[in-house]
C-alpha cells in the first residue's frame, strides 16, 4: 500500500517517511534574512545530507499554470550566472556526491549527499542557484519537452497513477490538491519561460526556505557556513497563501478510468482529519493505528481475511498519511481475484472497517499493532538521508521537527476505544470517493523508456 499512497499524496516526489535518530537532538537556527537552519548531528559515518526545502508546491499553483513548480525544479539544474546548464550536477558528481530534487503538493526540495569535507562546496552551489538562476528560453523549451514526456511516461502510460490522478480530481473540488503535481498537459503545452521565472521570483527566497543538514557535522560550523553562503541573499515579500478549504461532501463520488492494464483495481478514499496539533489531534493518531490494524504487517486484517482466507482479492490494503498542508485521505484499495468484481471487493473492504466499528479490537491486537507501527517508525531512523527527509517534511507541513518523537509517544497512548470511535465516525458515504480501474487489453509493445533528462 505504501507505493500506492505515494502515488496519491506525494506523486513525483521521493516517497519516504523516515524519522529522526534519538542519538542527537536537532538544533535550530535562524538567519537574519529569515532562512531557518536545522542541523541534526549523527557521527556514525563521515557523510552529510544537505537539503534546501521551499514551501511552494503544486498546491500554490493556479488554474492555467499547473505543473510550474515541477517545471522550475527542472530549470534549477539549467545554469546560473556562474554555472552552465548541467554544470551543477557535474560538480557534485566530481566531488563524489549524489544529488537530486523532488516536487510535491506541499513543497519542493533539493538535496546532496556528500562526504563531510565537501559540505561547503555543495552549500555554495545551492546558494548560487537560490539567488542567481538564469532563464534561457531555448533551455526552457528543451526542458519542458522533457517534463511533458515525463508526464506521459509516469502517468498517462501507467494505469494506477492515471487512476489516482482522477481520484484526486474527483475527491477535491475547491482545494488545489485537485490538480496533479505534474500539471495538466494543456498547461504544460502553453507554459513559457516567463511562467517559470515568475514562480522562482515569487517563492524562491531565503525566508521561504528551510535548510536541513544531517550527518557527521558540527552544528555551529554548519551555521557559520550557512551565514557565509546564504546569509547575504536578501529576503523577499513572499505571498500570503489564502485558505482554499474543501466544502463538505454530500454523498459518494465515483470515477471510472479505462486503461490498458492486467487487472481491475479499486480504491476508496475517505476524507479524514490531518495532523495539525500533535498534542490535541488524538483522532489522527487513532487513524494511524487503524491503518496499521488493517494493513500494517503481513498478517494484518485485510490481507489475512480477503487475500489469504477468503481468497476474494489478489491484494488488499489500507493507508493513511496524516502530514500535509492540505486535507488528507484514508485509503482502502485492492485488486479482486477471479470471480470477484470491483463492486463486491469495495463492499468487502468497507465491511472490514465496519467490523472494527461494531466489534472494536482486543487489547492484545492493539498492543501487537502498536509495537509494529512504532518499531517501523524507529527503524526508519537508521538513514542520515531519512532523518533529513522527515525533518523537512514536518517543517513544510507546519509541524515543528521537535514534535517527531512526541508523535511516537502519542501513538503509544492510543486506546482501543479511540480506534473504534474513528472507525465509526469517518467511513460513511458522505466522506467517500471511489475510483475504479476498468482494464483494457494491453497491446504488445515495448515499454517506453524514461525520458532523457529525467531527474527523479
Strand content: 15-25%
Largest sheet: 6 strands, mixed
Spatial strand arrangement across the major sheet: 1-2-6-3-5-4
Sheet/helix structural class: alpha+beta
| Shape estimate | globular
The H/E string reads HEEEHHEEHHHHHEHEEHHEEHHHHHE
CATH topology of the largest domain: Cytochrome Bc1 Complex, Chain A, domain 1
Count of individual beta strands: 11
- Briefly, what CATH class of the largest domain? Alpha Beta
Q: Give me the Rg, rounded.
A: 22 Å
The share of residues in helices is 40-55%
Number of helix segments? 16
Q: Compute the number of structural domains.
A: 2
CATH architecture of the largest domain: 2-Layer Sandwich
Going by CATH, the homologous superfamily of the largest domain would be Metalloenzyme, LuxS/M16 peptidase-like
GO biological process, one term: proteolysis
Keywords: Hydrolase, Metalloprotease, Protease, Signal, Zinc
InterPro entries: Metalloenz_LuxS/M16, Pept_M16_N, Peptidase_M16, Peptidase_M16_C
Protein name: Peptidase M16
Amino acid at each position: 500500500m505504501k507505493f500506492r499512497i505515494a502515488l496519491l499524496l506525494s506523486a513525483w516526489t521521493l516517497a519516504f517517511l523516515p524519522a529522526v535518530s534519538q542519538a542527537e537532538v536537532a538544533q535550530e537556527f535562524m538567519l537574519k534574512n529569515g532562512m531557518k537552519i536545522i542541523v541534526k548531528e549523527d557521527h556514525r559515518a563521515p557523510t552529510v545530507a544537505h537539503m534546501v526545502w521551499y514551501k511552494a508546491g503544486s498546491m500554490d499553483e493556479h488554474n492555467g499554470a499547473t505543473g510550474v513548480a515541477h517545471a522550475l525544479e527542472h530549470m534549477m539544474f539549467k545554469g546560473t550566472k556562474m554555472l552552465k546548464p548541467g554544470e551543477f550536477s557535474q560538480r557534485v558528481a566530481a566531488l563524489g556526491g549524489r544529488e537530486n530534487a523532488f516536487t510535491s503538493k506541499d513543497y519542493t526540495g533539493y538535496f546532496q549527499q556528500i562526504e563531510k569535507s565537501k559540505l561547503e562546496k555543495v552549500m555554495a552551489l545551492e546558494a548560487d542557484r537560490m539567488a542567481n538562476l538564469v532563464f534561457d528560453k531555448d533551455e526552457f523549451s528543451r526542458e519542458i519537452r522533457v517534463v511533458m514526456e515525463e508526464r506521459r511516461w509516469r502517468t498517462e502510460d501507467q494505469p494506477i497513477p492515471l487512476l489516482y490522478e482522477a481520484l484526486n480530481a474527483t475527491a477535491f473540488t475547491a482545494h488545489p490538491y485537485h490538480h496533479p503535481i505534474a500539471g495538466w498537459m494543456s498547461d504544460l503545452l502553453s507554459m513559457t519561460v516567463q511562467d517559470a521565472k515568475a514562480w522562482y521570483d515569487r517563492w524562491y527566497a531565503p525566508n521561504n526556505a528551510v535548510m536541513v543538514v544531517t550527518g557527521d557535522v558540527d552544528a555551529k560550523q554548519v551555521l557559520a557556513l550557512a551565514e557565509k553562503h546564504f546569509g547575504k541573499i536578501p529576503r523577499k515579500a513572499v505571498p500570503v497563501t489564502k485558505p482554499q478549504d474543501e466544502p463538505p461532501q454530500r454523498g459518494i463520488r465515483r470515477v471510472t478510468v479505462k486503461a490498458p492494464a492486467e487487472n481491475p483495481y479499486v480504491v476508496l478514499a475517505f476524507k479524514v482529519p490531518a495532523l495539525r496539533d500533535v498534542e490535541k489531534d488524538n483522532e489522527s493518531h487513532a487513524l494511524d493505528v487503524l491503518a496499521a490494524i488493517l494493513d500494517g504487517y503481513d498478517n494484518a486484517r485485510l490481507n489475512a481475511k480477503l487475500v489469504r482466507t477468503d481468497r476474494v482479492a489478489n491484494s488488499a490494503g489500507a493507508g493513511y498519511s496524516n502530514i500535509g498542508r492540505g486535507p488528507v485521505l484514508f485509503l482502502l484499495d485492492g485488486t479482486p481475484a477471479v470471480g470477484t468484481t470491483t463492486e463486491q471487493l469495495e463492499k468487502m473492504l468497507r465491511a472490514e472497517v465496519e467490523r472494527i466499528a461494531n466489534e472494536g479490537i482486543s487489547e492484545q491486537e492493539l498492543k501487537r499493532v502498536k509495537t509494529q507501527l512504532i518499531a517501523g517508525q524507529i527503524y526508519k531512523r537508521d538513514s542520515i538521508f531519512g532523518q533529513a527527509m522527515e525533518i523537512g517534511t514536518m517543517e513544510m507541513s507546519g509541524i515543528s521537527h521537535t514534535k517527531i518523537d512526541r508523535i511516537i509517544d502519542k501513538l503509544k497512548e492510543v486506546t482501543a476505544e479511540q480506534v473504534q470511535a474513528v472507525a465509526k465516525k469517518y467511513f460513511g458515504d458522505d466522506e467517500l470517493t471511489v475510483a475504479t480501474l476498468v482494464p483494457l487489453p494491453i497491446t504488445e509493445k515495448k515499454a517506453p523508456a524514461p525520458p532523457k533528462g529525467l531527474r527523479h
